[in-house]
Amino acid sequence: MFNDNPDIKNAFIALRHLEGDSLINSKELRSHSLRVMGMVDKVTSRISQPEKIRDMLVELGTHHIEYGARIEFIDLLGSQFIVCIEPMLAETNSWNPEVEIAWKKLFRMISYHMRTGMELQRKRNQTKKKLEKKQNKLNMSN
Question: I need a labelling partner for 113 at 20 to 30 A (CA). Which of 14, 40, 42, 62 fits?
Fold first, then answer.
Protein backbone atom coordinates (compact mmCIF):
# COMPACT_ATOMS: atom_id res chain seq x y z
CA MET A 1 0.00 0.00 0.00
CA PHE A 2 2.77 2.45 0.90
CA ASN A 3 4.73 1.63 -2.25
CA ASP A 4 1.74 2.38 -4.49
CA ASN A 5 0.56 5.34 -2.37
CA PRO A 6 3.49 6.86 -0.44
CA ASP A 7 1.35 9.77 0.83
CA ILE A 8 -0.60 7.36 2.98
CA LYS A 9 2.41 6.79 5.21
CA ASN A 10 2.37 10.47 6.16
CA ALA A 11 -1.11 10.01 7.63
CA PHE A 12 0.50 7.73 10.23
CA ILE A 13 2.61 9.92 12.49
CA ALA A 14 4.45 6.93 13.96
CA LEU A 15 5.34 5.58 10.50
CA ARG A 16 6.58 8.73 8.76
CA HIS A 17 10.22 8.15 9.59
CA LEU A 18 10.25 4.42 8.76
CA GLU A 19 11.30 2.79 5.49
CA GLY A 20 11.59 -0.72 4.07
CA ASP A 21 11.76 -3.56 6.58
CA SER A 22 11.59 -1.17 9.52
CA LEU A 23 8.21 -0.04 8.26
CA ILE A 24 6.90 -3.51 7.42
CA ASN A 25 8.02 -4.94 10.76
CA SER A 26 7.04 -1.97 12.92
CA LYS A 27 4.86 -2.50 15.94
CA GLU A 28 2.87 0.59 14.93
CA LEU A 29 1.91 -0.91 11.56
CA ARG A 30 1.15 -4.25 13.18
CA SER A 31 -1.01 -2.51 15.77
CA HIS A 32 -2.97 -0.65 13.10
CA SER A 33 -3.42 -3.87 11.13
CA LEU A 34 -4.85 -5.54 14.22
CA ARG A 35 -7.24 -2.63 14.74
CA VAL A 36 -8.41 -2.96 11.12
CA MET A 37 -8.94 -6.70 11.63
CA GLY A 38 -10.85 -5.96 14.83
CA MET A 39 -13.06 -3.50 12.99
CA VAL A 40 -13.75 -6.06 10.23
CA ASP A 41 -14.62 -8.60 12.91
CA LYS A 42 -17.02 -6.15 14.59
CA VAL A 43 -18.69 -5.33 11.29
CA THR A 44 -19.11 -8.95 10.24
CA SER A 45 -20.40 -9.97 13.67
CA ARG A 46 -23.03 -7.21 13.49
CA ILE A 47 -23.99 -7.81 9.87
CA SER A 48 -27.65 -8.20 10.84
CA GLN A 49 -27.55 -4.82 12.65
CA PRO A 50 -26.92 -2.26 9.90
CA GLU A 51 -27.68 0.74 12.12
CA LYS A 52 -25.01 -0.28 14.63
CA ILE A 53 -22.53 -0.84 11.82
CA ARG A 54 -23.34 2.57 10.34
CA ASP A 55 -22.97 4.36 13.66
CA MET A 56 -19.70 2.59 14.49
CA LEU A 57 -18.15 3.33 11.10
CA VAL A 58 -19.34 6.93 10.92
CA GLU A 59 -17.75 7.52 14.33
CA LEU A 60 -14.56 5.79 13.18
CA GLY A 61 -14.52 8.07 10.15
CA THR A 62 -14.81 11.19 12.33
CA HIS A 63 -11.79 10.04 14.33
CA HIS A 64 -9.77 9.44 11.17
CA ILE A 65 -10.15 13.10 10.14
CA GLU A 66 -8.70 14.06 13.51
CA TYR A 67 -5.77 11.69 12.86
CA GLY A 68 -5.06 13.45 9.57
CA ALA A 69 -6.27 10.70 7.24
CA ARG A 70 -7.48 11.86 3.87
CA ILE A 71 -10.86 10.73 2.60
CA GLU A 72 -9.44 9.23 -0.59
CA PHE A 73 -7.25 6.88 1.46
CA ILE A 74 -10.29 5.08 2.86
CA ASP A 75 -11.21 3.64 -0.53
CA LEU A 76 -7.82 1.90 -0.69
CA LEU A 77 -8.51 -0.11 2.45
CA GLY A 78 -10.64 -2.80 0.82
CA SER A 79 -8.37 -3.50 -2.12
CA GLN A 80 -5.32 -3.69 0.13
CA PHE A 81 -7.13 -5.97 2.56
CA ILE A 82 -8.10 -8.29 -0.29
CA VAL A 83 -4.52 -8.34 -1.59
CA CYS A 84 -3.46 -9.59 1.85
CA ILE A 85 -6.14 -12.21 2.46
CA GLU A 86 -6.60 -13.65 -1.02
CA PRO A 87 -3.38 -15.73 -1.02
CA MET A 88 -4.15 -17.18 2.39
CA LEU A 89 -7.69 -18.13 1.46
CA ALA A 90 -6.59 -19.44 -1.93
CA GLU A 91 -4.20 -21.85 -0.20
CA THR A 92 -7.17 -23.53 1.45
CA ASN A 93 -9.34 -23.34 -1.68
CA SER A 94 -11.56 -20.85 0.16
CA TRP A 95 -11.19 -18.08 -2.43
CA ASN A 96 -13.51 -17.85 -5.39
CA PRO A 97 -15.29 -15.10 -7.35
CA GLU A 98 -18.25 -15.07 -4.95
CA VAL A 99 -15.97 -14.64 -1.93
CA GLU A 100 -14.14 -11.83 -3.69
CA ILE A 101 -17.43 -10.08 -4.50
CA ALA A 102 -18.57 -10.42 -0.88
CA TRP A 103 -15.35 -8.87 0.45
CA LYS A 104 -15.56 -6.04 -2.07
CA LYS A 105 -19.17 -5.32 -1.08
CA LEU A 106 -18.23 -5.36 2.59
CA PHE A 107 -15.43 -2.85 2.07
CA ARG A 108 -17.58 -0.62 -0.16
CA MET A 109 -20.03 -0.41 2.73
CA ILE A 110 -17.24 0.21 5.26
CA SER A 111 -15.72 2.91 3.04
CA TYR A 112 -19.07 4.58 2.47
CA HIS A 113 -19.86 4.96 6.17
CA MET A 114 -16.32 5.98 7.10
CA ARG A 115 -16.29 8.61 4.34
CA THR A 116 -19.64 9.88 5.65
CA GLY A 117 -18.10 10.32 9.10
CA MET A 118 -15.01 11.96 7.67
CA GLU A 119 -17.07 14.43 5.64
CA LEU A 120 -19.21 15.20 8.69
CA GLN A 121 -16.15 15.88 10.85
CA ARG A 122 -14.48 17.94 8.13
CA LYS A 123 -17.58 20.14 7.93
CA ARG A 124 -17.68 20.45 11.73
CA ASN A 125 -14.04 21.52 11.74
CA GLN A 126 -14.68 24.11 9.01
CA THR A 127 -17.65 25.51 10.92
CA LYS A 128 -15.62 25.63 14.13
CA LYS A 129 -12.82 27.56 12.38
CA LYS A 130 -15.31 30.05 10.93
CA LEU A 131 -16.86 30.61 14.34
CA GLU A 132 -13.42 31.07 15.91
CA LYS A 133 -12.51 33.67 13.27
CA LYS A 134 -15.74 35.56 13.91
CA GLN A 135 -15.13 35.42 17.66
CA ASN A 136 -11.57 36.69 17.20
CA LYS A 137 -12.83 39.60 15.09
CA LEU A 138 -15.41 40.45 17.75
CA ASN A 139 -12.78 40.30 20.47
CA MET A 140 -10.45 42.59 18.49
CA SER A 141 -13.15 45.16 17.90
CA ASN A 142 -14.01 45.39 21.62
Answer: 14
